[in-house]
What does this fold into?
Amino acid sequence: TLVLTYTYILDPATNTRMVYYTIQDKAGNVATYTDTIILDTGSPTGTIIIDGGANYTQDREVVLSLTWDDDISGVEWVQYSNDNINWTSWEALVSQKIWVIEELEIGSIATVYYRVKDRVGNISQVASDTITYNPNIITIVQPREGEHIKGIAKIVAICPSDARYAVFEQRRQDSITYQAIGTDTDQQDGWSIFWETPIDEATYTIKATAYSENNYLLGLGIISVLVDNQPPIGTLTITPSPASRTITGILTGSVDIKSVLFECGTITIAYDSNLPFGFMLDIISWSPGTYTFSATMEDFVGNKGTAAIDILIDNEQPLAKIISIDGDYPGAKILKGSVTIEFTGKDNLTKIFGTPTILIDGTAEYPASYWDGENGTYIWNTGRWEDGAHTLQIILYDSVGNCGQSHVILVNVRNTQPPVVILSPIPESLLSGTISILVSAPESTKYVAFAVGTSGETWFGLDKTGTRTMDYPENGWEVKWNTRGFDDGKWIILAEAYSITNKLIGSATTNIILDNTEPVIRLIEPVEGFPIKTRENSVISVFFSYTEKHPSLLTILVLDGTKTIAHNTISDGLPSGCITSFEPLVIPKPTNNGTYTLEIILKDRCGYSSRDIKYSGVLVDNTIIIEPFTIVSPDDWSLVSGTRTIKVVGPEGIRWINFMLGTETESSFIVIGSDSYIYDGWGYAWDTKQHIDGEYMVRVIGYDLWDKPLGSDTIRVTIDNTPPDMEDLGTITLIPKRTEYLEIYFDNIVIKGSVNTGVADISLNGIKIDPIDGKIWNIIPLIEGTNTIILRFRDMAGNEGSYTYTVVYIQPRITMEVNDNGGIVKNPNGSTVEIPTDAMLEGRRIAFNMVLDKEGKMPIDSNISFLKAHYLYGSPIVFYEITTDRGGYVFHKPVKVTLAYDDSNWDKNLNYVKDEGEIDERRLCVFWYDEIGRKWIKIESLVNPASNTITFFTNHLSIFAIGQEIIQSMISKLDVYLTRNPFKFGQETTFVFSLPEPGRVYIRIFDLSGDLVRELLDGVHYTTGSSVNWNGLNDVGDRYVGSGIYIYQFRVEYYDGKKEQIIKPIGVVK
It folds into this structure.
């Protein structure tokens, strides 16, 4: 039954109800309608802030800042009240409102109430904010808001002129009650009072209240200060870094620390600006022991506090030793099956950390089977390893990360029985004198033959039987070999085992090295009898050379008579071959200058020593002129990047140099490296990439052996590791548009621009750079399709950058078959030819090409200013060539032609802005070329500047061009210009000139030497608006001139006897 109303109960849980209403007429037609309603029972919310949250107001008129929110229907109305009883009428929402608070006494608190209502009538809870009414605010000028104070502090306030006394009070931040400080009644030193601040560290509120003579409150002022009468408290934490032998100290604690001084005993430790109150210290050279590190803190009011910590520095390696293998001496022993390796380990300062490991063959590492802190064992199953020689070594660490290693033990594993094994010497051994060759052979062996050789082809027999050993090794054979008399170098030992029937059972070889030559050594400096000029307490540098392939121990002694007063030895790292310098020898402070004896002894790894070389008469003279201490590289005020070596020269006596980096103040210098090896020159390879770009000061300080400074030098450099980019380069322009992707319709484009003086070199697919003014340009020939052009450039600091352009070249031509139904021929540049139906009786092939005047062969007219392609080299004229496959064809209906152009056609200076006065776009028109009359004829056309097109109708096709007629005026002077300058081989340039009156014209081309190259015109009569072409050929006519700069002379002789000439350069390029 049809009803007009229906009641629904909305459910708050679902919130939204959509009602569908369907109605049906008597014929059975049905229509459905819907509507939606949302249930909103929630109250909106709102907030209020008076005067941006200020505590006081001098004016009853305040600004209320309001916010509101409602998720469903939205807030629409608002009410205000001063007493939460009397409310304003509901009014529209605003985010800020001017409001007048109720009249109050000075110092009273005003409250403003605020509530909002949403669109369905829900009202929010009341929000409120308060502010103190203080029309005469007292200004406390000392101390300042937020200032740190301590001890007895002076409080100064500015009060109204009618004030008779001022009351000062204070309260702690966690208290609500003010405590009296005092009252000032005489105003002798301003309204002020002295406050003895509490022994506390907390925020306090200071209140100053001014009263009149009759005790009337005039105003008050309040500030907050930090009372700090407590020393700063901090905790110093030291964290070791065993891998780099450094420690890091971090101070944590009070937030009001202003400065920190880190010390260890008498040593002041530099503050590391990269750490929050911390330092990083290299302790690799420190002696083991316990050290006390302290941090002296000072807060913003001068209170001082100290934090300290004791740490144990341990730079000693723990000790490790293999004691036995299966209870026997761990020498060259044959092992099989499972064996027990016994070892010990200890550390003099700390404990062994973790479980030691056994290193087998230098790579495989296994934890110990048993470890009690000092002694341990490892059960090694040799059956899992190949037979042959193996090495064993114990690796362990102490609690600070020092690594200890035992000596490497050589063992032989034999779980199978090879025919013959040479047990000793081991391969590649260095040998001398008489050695023992020990071989293991099968039990069936009757004898073993021994031989040696150098090539494996020629052998020298040593013994055909050998001596059988019954105890060690099992089934062992031994022979003695006196290696003296054999050449030094590599040898091969051959052992062959034979049976009782003299049958060869097996053989083995091993390679060894012989060295029976004594080392040879020669002193270079000091020269015997020549005085050594050193400073007192400095060093003597001893330079010498030696010849020895296997040096082991080098000893240098300085003798005063028979008494050794100085010595130096080195056993590790001696290079083989010839060495030319050695670590300097320390000479103790002698009582007098005198003569000393220098003795050098060199031993090789085979035990041979050089004959004792003694040089007497080495004079020591402690008088010296100190050489200047100078940084020789890089130069002062220079530009640096990457890794740069800092080179220094200094006086004798320098033992080591610190290299430091800083800014303008000396306190900001940090050590970046050091050098203690003079023989390759004092220097340091500085990685400048570890620092941000900018100006720095490089300082070097040289120290003697006792760490006394002997000299310093400072230079200023600028770090630049930032690659240049397009913004640094200024204007680099890819024509016709500056973009990373563009389409172009001609196969040559111009790229040009300029760079700033910070760029040292530019490489751009052959583009040249003029180093004087930084301007670059070149022609980029394109291939059809996608072209990638990359610019690469480098700045004066050597940083490199690049930029890439992508250009898509589209051939500006199209050929299309059109039948009698007509059609549209569209050139890729947007130009079209629309042929209507029945304009042709039969199909024709229509060709539409855009042609550039590249060769200078297209006809031109000096009375017409044609549109040119300024973004292409030489700014050629653009012609539109539209033809059919039957020349001279006339259409039966007019054909609509639309030619497209762009703004670049009159942008001569290539700045992407139309050149003012170059071409009036409104006067553009189309011209077609009459080949019979050899002239250009204007066609009625319509210009559309908005779309950059020009449209006309024609009944035939030809060569068309866009341009405008030149308004002829009386020419008052000689005018000459070239259509291309410079121009390329294979092209032409045109001399276009106008004369103020008829005359005879001479045009000649000269090279820079003044020789005539080509005579284009010789006294030919001309008038206004004439032109002559030059294709780059010389007077012979069959060869082109060379690429370069030439001079043209244009001279005219008028019939009245007057003469004029113009001399200008013209360029020809490949």
Notes: The chain has a mean pLDDT of 80.
